[in-house]
Write a structure and sequence with these properties.
Oligomer: single chain
Shape: globular
Structural class: alpha/beta
Distance between the termini: 12 Å
Number of strands: 13
Radius of gyration: 20 Å
Strand order of the largest sheet: 3-2-1-4-8
Strand content: 15-25%
Largest sheet: 5 strands, mixed
């Protein structure tokens, strides 16, 4: 048995995972990220110990998926701004509370690994996962291993520029994929379309009750009901998404590229137009082609992937 921990800015989620990548039991608690890092690590260890004790089993190792730049070799979170970790020796501190082997990885990379072991990319040696949430996260799997570069900071797919001198990204650059295809970006684009609709003809006004209530679902909800303004937003969004996906495929040629995160819940309604656009943009036009799919593990991907870090 293994334990996978998904350390987030809001919650710490932990799962007991078996050899078949099945989650046998789960626990979660609020992160309370403003606390000292030692307290957060102590809580992770407490969750892991409780899962093992309640199941009455020995745990071979604990894997932790965390945001930010990771030094996996030394078990250190180099920098994670949203939880206040800076050069934090997580594995070393964790073992003072629960003395088992500890492996550390970036959370998006762990989600990708989870999908490769047990989800949409199961059985694939080479896969990519992108997550469309507050930001655009990514993970690259090569020969069934996480690719993170020489310094642990690789795989930041959301910060590939797709529009030169385009929208400002939170990373400091302009025109990043994240600035056009995160849920945050979709919300911005929807609000801009509503602001341009000065006569308030769009169904978006009725569905949201006002610009301040726009969510990542709003444009798709209105587009499904035939709203032309909303459809223009989703068409634009899907164009940017397909452009970035085609770039990833052209570089890595993975067997599967899977899409997770909140926007992926639109399913085929979003996926099918994106796939059609990708087919026109990828360099490979014949022979074996990358399959673009919706991720299947949801919030469990990070737990499963973290548990597999010891593999």
């Amino acid at each position: 048995m293994y334990i996978g921990i998904d350390l987030g800015g809001t919650n710490i989620a932990a799962g007991l995972v078996n050899e078949n990548c099945e989650i046998i039991a789960k626990k979660s608690i609020p992160t309370q990220a403003e606390r000292p890092v030692n307290e957060i690590i102590a809580d992770m260890a407490k969750l892991a110990r409780e899962l093992a004790d309640e199941a009455g089993c020995e745990v071979e190792w604990v894997g932790i998926g965390a945001p930010g730049t990771i030094d996996a070799k030394n078990g250190v979170i180099v920098y994670a701004n949203n939880i206040g970790f800076l050069d934090t020796p997580v594995a070393e501190i964790f073992r003072t509370y629960y003395d088992v082997p500890v492996y550390l990885g970036n959370d998006a990379n762990c989600a990708a690994l989870g999908e490769a072991y047990a989800g949409a990319a199961k059985g694939c040696d080479n896969a990519i996962m992108i997550t469309l949430g507050t930001g655009l996260g990514g993970g690259i799997i090569i020969d069934r291993k996480i690719y993170a570069g020489f310094n642990g900071a690789g795989g930041e797919l959301g910060h590939v520029v797709i529009v030169k001198d385009g929208e400002q990204c939170s990373c400091g650059r302009k025109g990043c994929w994240e600035a056009y295809c995160s849920a945050t970006a979709l919300i911005r684009m929807t609000k801009e379309a509503m602001e341009a609709d000065t006569e308030k003809k769009s169904l978006l006004w009725e569905l949201t009750g006002g610009i301040e209530n726009v969510s990542g679902k709003s444009a798709y909800q209105a587009a499904k009901q035939g709203d032309a303004i909303a459809k223009a937003v989703t068409d634009s969004y899907e164009g940017y998404l397909a452009s970035g996906i085609a770039t990833m495929i052209n570089i890595f040629q993975p067997e599967v590229l899977c899409i997770g995160g909140g926007v992926s819940h639109e399913g085929d309604n979003m996926l099918n137009p994106v796939k059609a656009l990708v087919a026109k943009e990828v360099y490979t036009r014949s022979g074996k082609q990358t399959e673009v799919k919706i991720a299947t593990l949801g919030n469990n991907a990070g737990i499963v992937g973290a548990a597999m870090l010891g593999k």
